[in-house]
Amino acid sequence: MTNGSDLMSSDANPAQETDNVTPAESPVERRVFTPPIDIYETEEGLVLCADLPGVSADSLDLQIQDNKLTLFGRVEVSLPAAGQSVHEEYEVGDFLRSFILSDDVDHDRIRAKMSHGVLEVVLPRTTKADARRITVQSD
Amino acid sequence: MPVFRWGHAWQAIDDLEREVDRLLQGVGLALHGFRIGRNFPAVNLFEFEEEFLLTAELPGTRPDDLELTLASGVLTMKGERPVPEGVADDRYRRRERFRGAWQRSLSLPERIEEEQLTAEFTNGILKVHLPKATEVQPRRIQVIESDD
């Protein structure tokens, strides 16, 4: 679990701060990927799990606007630049995915946690008011 | 063309991607965003002057769930992805994540100092440092000027 200061400094790319840079110096456009997810039902509601390797709790942005749940995970690249790629199976990029929630989800009680690069979001069902018995009065 | 089907009882989430899939399928862009049909885990290998660095995407894996071995220049990784306990198959509304046991072997291009292999795990990314054996490291030979 090292995150050496030499790696951190490479993230602070000065080219990103200035707008009037030559094209050669402008930051490389980052790829955005759709993370694979699982959704399953529980007694409480739904659980959504998403694979977000390289994303930490701090670099994850989980938003609900109106009925739209959006997850955006920013992957922190921490590779020394001197390396030469010998074999490549995955590209590094950020993760983005959106969902529409129905009114059955209790938005206020949604909770989420990140652990080992997996996001887990619990979407509790709204507790419906108990069926009410209507007393019928007789005259 | 229903791509995904939700439980009839409780349609709590509708997925924007249903539309996106339909729009993008024709041109194959959906495949790209989804990174379908990949090995699990996906690995990258980099070469540095003194070592190789292998990175692998292993979200949800704990160091204890992982077995790493190196023999005769072949690195083997083995593990199993845990599944949530007590969740029956019919409770799933969507299943895209890899599950179950996996194993991958990679031949390394050069001799490795097997004793000095180190590995670290951060946010579901495994990094394995594989130091090159000393005899294959470039060595500078000092040339001494002779007097005669």
Helices and strands in order:
The complex is a heterodimer of chains A (139) and B (148).
Chain A: H1 5-11, H2 14-17, E1 31-33, E2 37-41, E3 45-51, E4 60-65, E5 68-73, E6 84-88, E7 93-101, E8 111-115, E9 118-124
Parallel strand pairs in A: 1-7
Antiparallel strand pairs in A: 2-3, 3-9, 4-5, 5-7, 8-9
Chain B: E1 13-15, H1 17-25, H2 29-34, E2 43-47, E3 51-57, E4 66-71, E5 74-81, E6 92-95, E7 100-107, E8 118-122, E9 125-131
Can you describe what's shown?
The complex is a heterodimer of chains A (139) and B (148). Chain A is mainly beta. Chain A has a domain at 27-76 and 92-127: Immunoglobulin-like. Chain A has helices at 5-11, 14-17, and strands spanning 31-33, 37-41, 45-51, 60-65, 68-73, 84-88, 93-101, 111-115, 118-124. The longest helix of chain A is centred in the N-terminal third of the chain and has 7 residues, at 5-11. Mean pLDDT of chain A is 77; it is low at 1-26. Chain B has a domain at 38-82 and 99-135: Immunoglobulin-like (Sandwich). Helix content of chain B is 10%, strand content 36%. Chain B has 2 helices and 9 strands, in the order βααββββββββ. In chain B, β4 (66-71) and β5 form a beta hairpin. The longest helix of chain B has 9 residues, at 17-25. The relative contact order of chain B is 0.18. The interface between A and B is large, with 53 and 49 residues. β7 of chain A pairs antiparallel with β1 of chain B, so a sheet runs across the interface.
